[in-house]
Amino acid sequence: MSRLIVAQSVASGPEGSDAVEIRGDRIVAVGSAAELRRPGLVEERFPGAFIAPGLRDAHFHPVPYAATLAGIGLKDAADLAEVTARIADAAASTTGPVLGLRLDDESLAEGRLPVRDELDAALPDRPVLLKRYCGHVAVANTVALIAGRIDASTPDPPGGTIDRDAAGVPTGVLRETAIDLVATALDVSALVDAPTLVDAMAGLAGLGLTSIGAMLGLGNGPWASLGDEVALVVAAAGDLPIRLHGFVIARSTADLEDAAARLSEAGPKVRWAGVKLFADGSLGGHTAALCRGYHDAPGSTGMLRLTDEDVALAAAALDLGGDVAIHAIGDRACHEVLDVFEGFVAGGIDPRRLRLEHASVLLPDDVTRIADLGIVASVQPAFLASETTWLERRVGPERLPLTYPLRSLLDAGALLAGGSDCPVEPPHPLWGMAAARDRAGIWPAERLDAGEALALFTTGAAAAMGEAPPLAVGSPADLVVLDVDPLAATPDELRRAGVDATYVGGAEVLVDRERPVWRG
Fold this sequence. Notes:
32% helix, 8-stranded parallel sheet, alpha/beta, single chain, globular
């Protein structure tokens, strides 16, 4: 059965187009409604609205995102007293470990993270783990540290550190892989079940998202306490309203092979996409690996986490037919990852199967090297909007021009894919487009125009996830109807825009504008 979706115009469609014809789950025509109309063809009309390709997010953490909707949000806490009060309030109505999410020391009145003693005062008898919003730093109380077998004699794990006071006693602050010691010992998987995940993904459809690059843990890493995320996606697969391309955070080839098999058999909206690895941490947590010291902490260059074992796991993923996505934020980490990718490309690997996740701070020569290699730079413009008050303090004025250098990358010919890294940032793709255009005022010379920003979250992200060109004849009928023209709207108008309809595989997904989709 065919039907015609008609609006005021089709963004990025042929000149004069205002309609898309869908037959089954495919697009069969994009053009003028006047020319496409015929007897018996059902029309769905959206007067004054605009059809756009389905929006994509190339880098998303679906299970932690669902947990933020159900758990304790701390991003807007004014001070440490409010942080501890929220922990105590939540504990009064729950049992088991307490997980606090999106803690932001930069916005707290004290300008610092809490320590174990302060968390102990609020909740001395149950484990507490607070995750900084970047996901690369956490704070644990004494009970949680005991569960993770952390005391003064515990060595720093490879790729992580345990903050200590002058006497060598752990303060409760854990960085990078040190978080895993506690996270793997605590179970808060009850926060998210399959129906909760499906409901969260339906909320994303209401934002115009039709597919995401889903970063999925296996009960390991900093989100270990949420359990086996691959198993949860498989359990929810039959009811998912949008497409999930799973990048598995694996620690061994056996685990990767098992996860790949489970995802490959899950259902039509789920596929195994590849492996996700880490080369460093975050700028906010001072754990991104830099070539020179942080501007506000000259003695620290962050943490380089990339190992030979990671490179071997990347090779295994490629042998299995998957892609490789490596988190790299600092210029040193990005450079090291590019060295690895250069070796893979020299060995005959298609560079489009290699993704540099974030590419936040780059060396000048590495901008052109990304383009020359032909790999994908998976970028998150929304980082700019949340880092306005401290970004220059971290990187300094000399590195700022090559921090989130979207314009330079695009002009060099790099392949860019847009994402949010949600729940690090809000899941709204239109907000990401707006940030790519106005950069929240940070180094405006690197901003993109409207068409380029739209492409980040449509054609670019689709290519990075192995999808067919969006809104093209023969491609899956994944499209969105917006109440603004994304090519004509200002960045602020994009931030206020609404979604009238979302179609995935030709089926309209219910858009509920009242559904909660974000707890900032």
